[in-house]
Amino acid sequence: MYLFSEDIAFNYYFIERMSYGCCAVNDTISQILNPHAPFGGIGNSGIGQYHGYDSFKCFSKETTILNKGYRFEIDTRYPPYEKNIKSLNFLYNLTKK
Predict the structure, then answer these.
(1) Which structural domain range is residue 40 located in?
(2) For labelling, which of 10, 31, 85, 90 has a CA lying 20 to 30 Å from the CA of 76?
(3) Where in the numbering of this chain does the Aldehyde dehydrogenase domain appear (predicted)?
(4) Judging by beta carbons within 10 Å of its beta carbon (0-12, 13-18, 19+), is residue 25 exposed, middle or buried?
């Protein structure tokens, strides 16, 4: 889910009431670049494996909330991404290490 608002109360209202696998607040790319944040949806796109630990993971609702900070604004975080593909690839490769 992508949520764009600078109204913190509005953001919390939706975060607490909506169903989602990942929520990016005021950003569109952070959840993909963060290797520790599970990226996924709900319903058919949220189905996983089961048995043992995988059952716990499958039948638990793990969510991610990413809230964009306002200290560093870089163009690569926002569409159109085509003009920044080299920078995005560089950032993505940094997360793999």
Answers:
(1) 2-59
(2) 10
(3) 2-64
(4) buried
Which DSSP symbol is given to 23? Answer: E
Number of residues written out for the chain: 97
Token look-up 């929520």 returns 23
Q: What is the pLDDT of residues 54-87, one digit of tens each?
A: 667 777 777 888 787 767 777 777 778 787 888 8
Domain count, the chain: 1
SS3 11: helix
Please report whether residue 96 resides in a domain.
no
Residue 66 lies in a domain: no
Give a yes or no: residue 64 inside a domain: no
Question: pTM higher than 0.85 for the full model?
Answer: no
